[in-house]
Amino acid sequence: MLIEPTLRNSVRAFAAIPVLTLLLGSIPARAQSGAASYVFLIGSGFLCDAGDSGACPAVVKSEGGDTFEISGAGVFNPRQKTVMATGTFTHRSLDGNALETGIWIASELVSFDSYGVAPGALMREGRALGRPQFGGKRMPMFSGSMPVGGLAVFRIRLLPALGFAKNATLQVICALGKAPDEHPAEGIRLAFERSGTEFAEEISGRALFLLTIPGASAASKPPAPELDTNPAPTEVQQ
Predict the structure, then answer these.
(1) pLDDT tens-digit readout, 150-159
(2) Of 82, 100, 70, 99, nearest to 173 (Cα)?
(3) Burial zone of 49 (CB within 10 Å; 0-12 exposed, 13-18 middle, 19+ buried)
(4) Which residue(s) pair with 80 in the sheet?
(5) 159-172, pLDDT tens digit by residue?
(6) DSSP letter assigned to residue 17
(7) 3-state helix/strand/coil string of 152-165
(8) What does R_g of the chain's alpha carbons equal in angstroms?
(9) Whole-model pTM?
(10) By CB neighbour count within 10 A (0-12 exposed, 13-18 middle, 19+ buried), where does 7 fall?
C-alpha cells in the first residue's frame, strides 16, 4: 500500500519537533553533566549544508532491492549506556514507491567503538562555516565539540504512520579517524529483530559523531574583568 505524499510530509514535520527539542535542550545539559557525551547526526543538520545531494537522508538497501531512508539526531554516553535520539524514516520498494513512513526512537545504546578524534574535519569539508540547519529552522553549532569517527549500534523502535511498530538494530558509521578496513565509508545499516530482514548495503548519506567535552564551553569564554577591591579615594569638594 502506497503512502500519500501529504501524509508523508505531515509525519516528517511532526518528527522534526522532537529532534529540534532534543538537540537544543538535552545536548547542552548533558554536555555539562560532568561526563563526556557524543552528539550524532544521520543525514540531517549541517550535514545537509555541504552542497552534496547525497548527504541527506542516509539510504541503505536490502538484497531484495528495497531501501530505507533515515534521518535523525541524538546524544549518547558510552560509559553510562544512555541514549536519546529520534528521527524519520521512509521504506521504499525496488521501483521507488514509498511503502511506509514514520518516526524512529532510540531505545538502547548497544555499543560504541570510537575510531578517534579527527581535528579540523569540519573545516576541511567546509561545514564549519555558517549556521547549521534542520528542516526549515536554524540551530547553533555545539561549542566545545570535536568530530570523531566510530561505529555506534542502537536498538530503535520504528513507528510508522500506518501499521504496527517494529524493533530493529541500527548501525551508524562515521569513517573519520582510524576507520577499519571493513568500514571504509560512513552510512547506516539496519536489521529487523523479528523478521531478520537486513539492509546492509550503504547507498548514500552522511553520518557524524561530535565528542562534547564537559566544561569546554565555559573554558572558552573570556574571563570576566576583575573588580578593583581597593578603589582610589575620591576627592571631596569643600
Answers:
(1) 999 999 999 9
(2) 70
(3) middle
(4) none
(5) 999 999 999 999 99
(6) H
(7) EEEEEEEEECCCCC
(8) 21
(9) 0.73
(10) middle
Most confident among 24-28, 103-107, 133-137, 212-216 (mean pLDDT): 103-107
How far is the C-alpha of 159 from the C-alpha of 56, rounded, in Å? Answer: 20
Q: Which long-range contacts (CB under 8 A, 24 or more apart) does 4-8 make?
A: 7/101, 7/161, 8/90, 8/98, 8/101, 8/161
Cell (9 digits) for 111: 555499543
How far apart, in Å, are the Cα atoms of 1 and each of 102, 138, 159, 176, 195? 14, 35, 16, 39, 19
What three-state secondary structure class fits 174? strand
Alpha-carbon distance 59 to 199, whole Å?
Answer: 9
Beta bridge partners of 114: 150
The label of the residue with cell 546524544 reads 75
| Cβ atoms of residues 207 and 187 within 8 Å | yes
Q: How far is 42 from 135, CA to CA, in rounded Å? A: 13
Phi, psi of 82 (to 5 degrees): -115, 155
At position 216, the amino acid (one-letter code) is A
> Residue with C-alpha cell 549506556?
81
